Give the backbone structure.
Amino acid sequence: MKSKLKPPVTPAQQFARRSWVMVGLLAVLGLGILARAIDLQVLKHGFLTEQGSERFMRTASMPAHRGNIVDRFGEPIAVSTPVTTVAVNPSIITQYPDDLALLAQAMQVDQDALIRRVSSNPDSSYLVVGRHIQPEDAKRVESLKIPGVLTEREYQRYYPAGEVTGHVLGFTGNEDQGQEGLELGFESRLAGENGQRRIIQDRKGQVVETVESVRAPKAGQQLVTSLDLRIQFLAYRELKAAIQDYKAKSGSIVIIDVRTGEILAMVDQPSFNPNDRSHLEAQIYRNRAAVDVLEPGSTMKPFFVIAGLASGKIKPDEIIDTNPGFIRVGMNTFEDEHNLGRADIATILAKSSNVGMAHIGLRLDRPFLYKTLQGFGFGKLTTTGFPGESAGVLSSPANWGDVWIAVAAHGYGISVTPLQLAQAYATIGSYGVRHPATLLRVDNAPAGTQVVDPKVCQEVISLLENVVTMPGGTGHLASIRGYRVAGKTGTAWKSSQGGYAGGKYEALFAGLVPASQPRLAAVVVIDEPSNGKYYGGDVAAPVFSSVMSGALRLMAIPPDDLERLPSTTLVQAVQK
């Protein structure tokens, strides 16, 4: 049987077959590429876009402008200025060690410290290495175009008046949030609402494109305070000089507009500059005028007289027998420096008789006295809302014995803040109407609360004028040329553990001007004067005179005591 032989394959046929194989392979490869393209571009487009966004797109904060704080006339006392925050991506910038040295130089920071901080956070993709960088430094950083370095705009608080308003305003922290003072107390009003934007970054961390604004930033509200920056500066200057002259530990001044309850000035010494936050300590930035309590000494005496007059227990022209110059109450003896004998109420206040006040206090109905003192704001917080404010100490009348009454009648056993005491004197000045004390400007003054008969306060204001004008009165250094002054001096031992500290005093003066129709109430406290003088009439009264004399002129309040001015002074005033 013969086998059939296949004809040999020619070279042409071999080439054709190989061509078809190659075409088939190319077709399969093309179909694979097409399928993959369809899979990536169509089927998995959403997933891949999301993954890409996670790697190169992020949400960046858009800081809001914090509301400015201004004085009652619109003068800025706290503003926000633009600054820059510098952040790095450690996983990127560590690949360029030489650039870290350049960055440290541009930011003017320690190079070794910067390297340690970056290298200790290798897993972080966003590490802040500099806050509140000044514009010139920020420009240097941005001009370097270092991979992995980001710059973001923020705001930093600046206080134009510096330490003049430091204790009232407080300060903000690194995140521009209020930490003390009005900045903290009115945080919800001042703080804006940060915005957000979505940005795309390249592999070096640089912003390539802003994709969208998620939420626009909302600026904080402006805060218009009751402060008069002119009077604030005047009080600051005079108090600082007094602290230095009397070598005192500290001091406070509070000035209130009698008609509205507005606080025109609140100053503490020693002060601090809120623009320099490198040496802030609680004992320095604490607002003593609102937070610290003290026993008010003889500045409390007018309120016991008010209670006596309002209750009918004493009369304005009544004579009190202070003989023999001391009084025994229980096991305790209270005495005056000089025996005043039979003295009227004006003399008892003018010469600050502890014996006379003990006699008055022991006559009073205790629940009525308690109600009167509370009506003037003692033992209660004021309405300022100042952070950390103290309510002072006023115990329940159930705990009052005769000794407590005799002690409290000349200002011990009761604790107040300078702010409380100023509000209480402002209430006397408004003829018994207690207006809410406020650090915000008042355009329409509230009606206030009538806490005592207006005639009683008018009588007490007249009595308090004698403290300044009567020969031998303790407050003659508080007098102001051309104005009638009503006020009371106070000198109190400082309390210490187990009793009172020998040789340590609080010197006070609280007063009203002009006395004919009070407009301003002020309290001056000098803590531990130590240059040989410590009485309130010698130390605090002159400060009151200097500050209030200037305040009256600044507010253009007309004089009410021209009759006592020398005729030459009046002629000169007319000629000018």
Observations:
- DSSP finds 21 helices and 19 strands in the chain.
- The chain has two domains: 59-224, 229-272+288-571.
